[in-house]
């Protein structure tokens, strides 16, 4: 298993290099998140030992178990919560979370502010809706971000680092491409409005998974969330 994960990581990094050269992107601008949902802790450790530091989990309970298990030996492993977070789970967010990528409502932001266990500011990506016709994905509509961003700007616990999006499962390639380019442009516009004078800071744009990361790189993603391509098929039992 360790050799397979090692080879998968090497293949992905090589492919990212090729794609960055093709699309005039800097490889150093692309962060790879290993989505470890439903994968055992030993696989996470193997991926970490083969050069990955960032891992994404969808479910709070699963993340808690893995975090507690791996923290003694891998203290600098960086956890990202990438799945939809229910308001009543905000109380479980603590300093072991490196980044919450799925902040999608003002009510959730307020719950984190009031009930989380954070002692320092939490890196936040606001999850934007990519396709208004895709009812199966979470995300706040671009037009409704003002209140949320205003709250983050005054928050003592939240630090905006960028934006996240999840593309529709099935859609024609050119339509997906248009949606992704629009998402990236909207993310940059919101970032500049939020910070007013960004001083060369650039937003994290978390877009692209195992099935669409090539297009995501072309469209301007700076963070890829990949699970199957790294770990293989998930054990959902």
From TrEMBL:
SUPFAM superfamilies per the record?
Answer: PLP-binding barrel (SSF51419)
Please, which domain of life does this record's source organism belong to?
A: Bacteria
Which InterPro entries would you find in this protein's record? Answer: Ala_racemase_N (IPR001608), PLP-binding_barrel (IPR029066), PyrdxlP_homeostasis (IPR011078)
Gene Ontology MF term list: pyridoxal phosphate binding
Pfam (any one): Ala_racemase_N
Sorted UniProt keywords: Pyridoxal phosphate
Q: What does this protein do?
A: Pyridoxal 5'-phosphate (PLP)-binding protein, which is involved in PLP homeostasis.
Instruction: Give the UniProt family note.
Output: Belongs to the pyridoxal phosphate-binding protein YggS/PROSC family.
Q: HAMAP family from the xrefs?
A: PLP_homeostasis
Q: What protein name applies here?
A: Pyridoxal phosphate homeostasis protein
Question: Can you name the source organism?
Answer: Silvanigrella paludirubra
Its taxonomic path starts at: Bacteria, Pseudomonadati, Bdellovibrionota, Oligoflexia, Silvanigrellales
């Amino acid at each position: 298993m360790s050799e397979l994960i090692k080879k998968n990581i090497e293949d992905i990094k090589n492919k990212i290099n090729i794609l960055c050269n093709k699309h005039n992107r800097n490889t150093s601008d692309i962060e790879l998140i290993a989505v470890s949902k439903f994968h055992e802790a030993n696989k996470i450790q193997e991926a970490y030992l083969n050069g990955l530091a960032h891992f994404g989990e969808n479910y709070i309970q699963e993340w808690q178990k893995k975090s507690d298990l791996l923290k003694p030996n891998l203290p600098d492993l960086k956890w990202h919560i990438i799945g939809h977070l229910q308001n009543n789970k905000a109380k479980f967010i603590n300093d072991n979370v490196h980044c919450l990528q799925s902040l999608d409502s003002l009510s959730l932001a307020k719950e984190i502010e009031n009930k989380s266990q954070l002692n320092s500011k939490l890196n936040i990506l606001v999850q934007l809706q990519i396709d208004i016709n895709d009812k199966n994905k979470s995300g706040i509509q671009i037009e409704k971000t003002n209140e949320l961003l205003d709250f983050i700007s005054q928050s003592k616990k939240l630090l905006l680092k960028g934006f996240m999006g999840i593309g529709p499962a099935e859609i024609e390639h050119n339509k997906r491409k248009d949606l992704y380019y629009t998402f990236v442009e909207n993310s940059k516009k919101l970032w500049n409005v939020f910070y007013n004078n960004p001083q060369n800071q650039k937003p994290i744009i978390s877009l692209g998974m195992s099935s669409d990361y090539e297009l995501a790189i072309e469209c301007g993603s700076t963070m890829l969330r990949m699970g199957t391509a790294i770990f293989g098929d998930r054990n959902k039992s």
